[in-house]
Amino acid sequence: MQPISPASLLPADLAQALLIGRIWRDGPCVIAVRCGEVVDITQTVATVAELFECSDALDIARHAPGIALGSVQALLEQALAAPVGEPLLLAPCDLQAVKACGVTFAVSLLERVIEEQAGGDAARAASLRAALQSTLGGDLSALKPGSEAAQRLKQQLQQRGAWSQYMEVGIGPDAEVFTKAQPMSSVGCGAQVGLLPSSAWNNPEPEIVLAVNSRGEVLGASLGNDVNLRDIEGRSALLLGKAKDNNGSCAIGPFIRLFDEGFTLDTVRQAEVSLLIEGADDGFVLEGASFMREISRDPLDLVRQTAGQYHQYPDGFMLFLGTMFSPVKDRSAQGGGFTHHLGDRVTIASAALGALVNEVQRCDVIPPWTFGVRALYQNLAQRGLL
What we know:
The chain has twelve helices and 18 strands.
C-alpha cells in the first residue's frame, strides 16, 4: 500500500471549502479550516454541537477569533503519523446522536434481503443473489418508496412468499432509521475501525453523513464508514445493535463541510462516492464508485423521518444516509464473496468532502472508548471553557 498523501484527504476545492473539525490539544478542540488554514475556535464555541445551535454558525466558523495552527495539510500529516492510541484528528462531531438510515439504495436493499435469506452464511450469498434478482425483476432504484407501484409489488411478493422486512423499509412509506453509535464514540480519519472477533462476514459501508442541529436544520456534510457485520445481522435483524454498534464501528470525517454559497444539499444529491479497499496481507484491491442520485429517498425526507414532532435531538444528530456500495467481489475463495481481513485500509472519498481513511482491526484490540460526555465536560471545565 502506498503512503497516504495529506492532500488526498481534502476537498478538491479546498480554497473555497469551509470545514469544521476536532483535534486533541490538552483535550478536544473545535477547529475551523478557512482557505486551507486551521484555526482553533474553542474559546468561542466549546463543542461542535454548540456551534451548530448558533443562528450565525456560518459567520462564527468564518470569522471567530482563535489560535492559528498552520496549514491543514501540515495538521493532517501530523495526524496520520500520530500513534494509534493517541489520535490527533478526532471525529468532527461530539455531543450529537449518531443515527443511520438503512436500505436507501436498491443495491443495499438487495444485499440486506440476501443476508436475511442466507441466515448469515456468506457461502449462500451468490446463489441467493441470482435467484432474488430473477424474482424481483426490473430496476428497484426506479421505484418510489410508498408509491402505488411499490404497494403493488409488495402485494405480488407477499403472494409469492418473497416479502421481507427489509423490503418493507426499502420500498414502504417508512424509512429505517437506527442508532449507529453513542455521542462521542465515533472515530476519526486515520483511526482504526473495529470488527467483532466472532464475525466472519463483514464489510465497510461508505456513506455521506449529514450534520443536523436540534431544529432539524442541515448545516453540512461529512463522510462516514458504517462498518457492517453481515453475518450477525443476517442471523436476525434483532441483532442490529450487535452488528452495528461496537468499539470503533463508526468512523466519520475527516471534517464536516458547512453548506454555503458553493456547497449545498444539491451538491450532496449529485455527489459521487468512491470506495477503495486495500489488503495488507494478500494484496487484495477492490474499488468502485456510486452516485447519490440513485438514492430512493431524498436526504431531507430522511431528516424529517428522523426528527420532528415525535422525536427530538436537543444536541443535534449526525445522519448516515445509507450505503450505495455493497462489496461482493470474491476474495478468499470463488463464490465466497467479500469479507475484511485485519489490516485492510479503507478509503471513502468524494470530491467536495475529501477522503476518510481507516485501518480495519478487531474491536477488542483497538483502543477502548473511554472519553465520553462526562469526561468532555470535566475536561472543558478544567480548561476554563465552560
